[in-house]
């Protein structure tokens, strides 16, 4: 339509799903902006540095079960971004320098604005009006000047971003909130399926040690009993991403749910006691706690993505979108990546 600016597609969420979606759209010639509320993209593929210690404290590895994902993984391997860590018959892949590094490589050709929290998605003529906040005012100005194309925002009100289509990769409980805040009404069946998606929380302790741990090679111990408070212990030093012994200790979903609102020192105290055996004779130099409110999906959305069928294109993707015919029915990096790609392809068809 002459005179109507062509706004970009906005992808909400710069985790693996949003990044793979954006890359698919950009490769097809679309203009795309990714918005993420985190300090960097990557979402649950998260890596934290503390001095010489490096911790993967979200996903530790990924596996490959489909030829479609294998094609991407082959390319990442050829680039030297990932290597096999351990595991038969499905190899566990780790990212060089930590899982977040892989998402940084994937984000290189993309426009990604971090520390931008979208607060609502409102329909308007020819697209969407997104409201957002950032706690850092200076950063807001910088974001606009350096990253967002000029025509995207309303100069009279910088808290607005315009999009011709939105692809939301925040977990469905958060995505539904944004849609409701914008006054959208979903079809009853769609609303029911999205509202049924539930996530387990996860509490993770990050321990810097002054010597080697007692975790056996290859630096990965999973509890045999799924009700054990400590579900998984990873030695990031043995994994090859940390220059100093550094453990990530994950509590199981139920324990995390029961203790989620307790103060840091209480949670850390209990987790350290449970995992003491893996500390060996080393001392703890530093202990931090990470709280994941949305960790692994317990219930899924029964398709690769959701097309909301609203007046302008709006699609949802992410790790909890898994078609019933998928043989491994659990949310993970592969499902998130392929969901993003599938949603982007549908968007290209619609546009
Ligand atoms: C502790 C833990 C251990 C795990 N272990 C493994 C593992 O070993 N192997 C495996 O395959 N998977 C694992 N997973 C799961 C895996 O990390 C996820 O399935 C995958 O990374 C999800 O990707 P995603 O892009 O769908 O979502 P996310 O990575 O969660 O990305 C969504 C993004 O949306 C952003 N966002 C949300 N709301 C807004 C908003 N309002 N405005 C702007 N941005 C917003 C978030 O900041 C986030 O970056 C683990 C997860 C956790 C938490």
TrEMBL record:
SUPFAM superfamilies: FAD/NAD(P)-binding domain. Pfam families: Amino_oxidase (PF01593), NAD_binding_8 (PF13450). Residues 6-51 form the Rhodanese domain. GO terms for molecular function: oxidoreductase activity. This is Rhodanese domain-containing protein.
């Amino acid at each position: 339509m002459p005179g109507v600016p062509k706004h970009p597609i906005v992808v909400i969420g710069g985790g693996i799903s949003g990044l793979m979606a954006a890359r698919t759209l950009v490769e097809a010639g679309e203009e795309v902006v990714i918005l993420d509320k985190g300090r960097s993209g990557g979402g649950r593929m998260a890596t934290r540095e503390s001095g010489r210690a490096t911790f993967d404290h979200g996903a530790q590895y990924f596996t490959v079960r489909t030829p479609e994902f294998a094609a991407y993984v082959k390319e990442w391997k050829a680039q030297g971004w990932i290597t096999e860590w351990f595991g038969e018959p499905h190899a566990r892949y780790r990212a060089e320098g930590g899982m977040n590094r892989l998402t940084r490589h994937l984000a290189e050709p993309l426009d990604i604005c971090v520390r931008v929290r979208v607060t609502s998605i409102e329909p308007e003529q020819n697209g969407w009006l997104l409201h957002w906040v950032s706690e850092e005012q200076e950063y807001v100005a910088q974001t606009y000047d350096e990253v967002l194309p000029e025509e995207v925002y309303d100069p009279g009100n910088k808290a607005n971003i315009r999009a011709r289509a939105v692809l939301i990769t925040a977990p469905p409980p958060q995505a539904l909130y944004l849609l409701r805040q914008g006054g959208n009404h979903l079809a009853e069946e769609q609303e029911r399926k999205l509202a049924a998606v539930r996530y387990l929380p996860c509490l993770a302790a990050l321990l810097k040690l002054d010597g080697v741990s007692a975790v056996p090679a290859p630096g990965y111990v999973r509890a045999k009993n799924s009700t054990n408070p400590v579900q998984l212990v990873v030695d990031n030093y043995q994994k090859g991403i940390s220059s100093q012994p550094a453990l990530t200790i994950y509590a199981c979903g139920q324990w995390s749910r029961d203790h989620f609102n307790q103060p840091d020192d209480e949670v850390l105290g209990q987790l350290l006691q449970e995992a003491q055996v893996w500390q060996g004779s080393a001392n703890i130099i530093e202990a931090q706690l990470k709280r994941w409110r949305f960790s692994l999906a317990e219930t899924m959305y029964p398709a690769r993505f959701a097309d909301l069928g609203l007046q302008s294109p709006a699609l949802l993707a992410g790790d909890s979108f898994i078609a019933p015919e998928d043989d491994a029915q659990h949310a993970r990096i592969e499902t998130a990546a392929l969901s993003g790609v599938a949603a982007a392809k549908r968007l290209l068809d619609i546009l």
